[in-house]
Amino acid sequence: MKDLQIETIINQNRKPIPEADQLGFGQYFTDHMFLMDYTEGQGWHDPRIVPYQPLQLDPSCMVFHYAQTVFEGMKAYLTKDEEVLLFRPDQNFKRLNNSNDRLCIPHIDEEFALEALKQLIKLDRDWIPSAPGTSLYIRPFIISTEPHLGVHPSHNYLFIIILSPVGSYYKEGLNPVKIAVEKNYVRTVVGGTGTAKTGGNYASSLKAQEESGKVGYSQVLWLDGRENKYIEEVGSMNIFFKVNGEVITPALNGSILAGITRDSIIQLLKHWNVPVTERKISMDEVIQAYRDGLLEEAFGTGTAAVISPIGEFFYQDEKMVVNNGEIGKLSKELYDTLTGIQNGIKQDPFGWSVKL
Ligand code: COI
User: pLDDT tens digit string along 105-159?
Assistant: First the structure.
């Protein structure tokens, strides 16, 4: 597989590249994309880079009906020396294969996928924005393409990588977001698909997000699906609390996504000798810490948002304002350090950055 040649068709109709202040998140796509097919009995084949364009798919393709699909989110950055850095891309392709396991999709060759991604980014390098807070968001994904209506793992798949220059994920940017604690809906349960990055998890989150949006909250805080008591994730991010000097995040329990930013934050805190614990945390415990004046900071972590400070929780008709609704000192230091490493401005003692 590693020896497969990637055929490249250059796009002769280049699009205008948007200005940094127009970017938003996921609205613009570069001039090329990567595609590779899977056919049962043959494996992955025909890797190619082609002009970015709509796909032609049979309406009976299994992905449209039974959502057998996985995706990843990662970023590339342009340094001040015009070098391109990827952040821990090996971890994303590894997680893609973990998601593939859960969704009965055949593994991809992780090294080959990284090589294909590098070739794609080289072609669309001019699209990587350099303004502070911007990056090139990378979306690898796999869809089941067998034209068939029976429920079984597909015999055909398409692996695609598209690229999108982005600014901040939330309109709030680094300003704290307001979160409603979700009581009626659950994201997933242990044994479900919560640890996989698959579209269905996000589809099932929309109703709660829509309802909380109507009452002024940008995202929801998910509690566990069994007892509705323990904290799992926030919106499409992992969550951290700083309580009385200690940083706490829910342990990976079989329904929480193993975030790569989550892991990086834990490693960074350990490196700084800041106490950090992964364990079960109940909403009651957070309320108690708040009432005792010990809830110092809260923030979400994810590739898209990096760090998103939380300024307010809404739970059982009560508003809990964290750190006067302002970004906390530690959250800011983590954001500056992590984005500094990603942009090549700060030293990377972990070997996370990969040069193109
Ligand atoms: C990411 O943080 O990259 C994600 O995949 C979340 C997303 C749904 C934008």
Answer: 999 999 999 999 999 999 999 999 999 889 999 999 999 999 999 999 999 999 9
The structure's pTM equals 0.95
Q: Radius of gyration of the chain from Cα atoms?
A: 21
From 91, 163, 169, 170, give the residue whose CB has the most ligand 1 atoms within 8 Å, as the site to mutate. Answer: 169
* Domain covering 7-166, topology: D-amino Acid Aminotransferase; Chain A, domain 1 (3.30.470)
Q: Express each pLDDT in 293-313 by its tens digit.
A: 999 999 999 998 899 999 999
Judged on CB neighbours under 10 Å (0-12, 13-18, 19+), 294 is middle
Residue 174 and residue 27 in contact, taking contact as beta carbons nearer than 8 Å: no
For ligand 1, whether the C-beta of 92 sits within 6 Å is: no
Task: Give yes or no for residue 307 CB within 6 A of ligand 1.
Answer: no
Domain 177-343 has CATH 3.40.50.40: no
Give the span between the Cα atoms of 87 and 299, in whole angstroms.
Answer: 20
Ligand 1 atom closest to the CA of 261, numbered from 1: 2
CA of 164 from ligand 1 middle (Å) equals 13
The C-alpha torsion from 72 through 78 and 82 to 88, rounded to 10°, is: -50
As a whole number of angstroms, the distance between CA 332 and CA 242 comes to 13
